[in-house]
Design goal:
single chain, 106 residues, mainly alpha, 2 domains
């Protein structure tokens, strides 16, 4: 092999390595569901804040962002509130249904 072909082979190898590294990074990002979900949440928050800013004011939009960040940093209270709301709603629906079966008016 001539020196020129050796250099070409090394250059091809280096390009192939770079392309493979880029492909692996892209696959890693695509498979990282948690990061992709967080990015989607960030985009949604930004869109919501922008819409609030158009409708109301910039300080209100900042409150939306701050509230979203608070929920993101500690989501347990939000999940507890949603769970509690679903529990109460289900209880009320069952109670109303039972009351109607007994012939009572609500």
């Amino acid at each position: 092999m001539t020196e020129r072909k050796v250099e070409e082979a090394r250059a091809d190898r280096d390009v192939t390595r770079e392309e493979l590294a880029e492909t692996l990074d892209a696959l890693g990002h695509k498979l990282d569901v948690r990061t992709r979900a967080a990015e989607k949440v960030d985009e949604t928050i930004d869109r919501a804040a922008a819409q609030v800013e158009k409708t109301v004011s910039a300080p209100a939009a900042e409150k939306v962002r701050a509230g979203a960040e608070a929920v993101r940093s500690n989501p347990l209270p939000l999940f507890a509130a949603v769970f509690g709301g679903v529990f109460v709603l289900r209880f009320l629906i069952r109670r109303r249904s039972a009351h109607r079966k007994q012939g009572g008016a609500c």
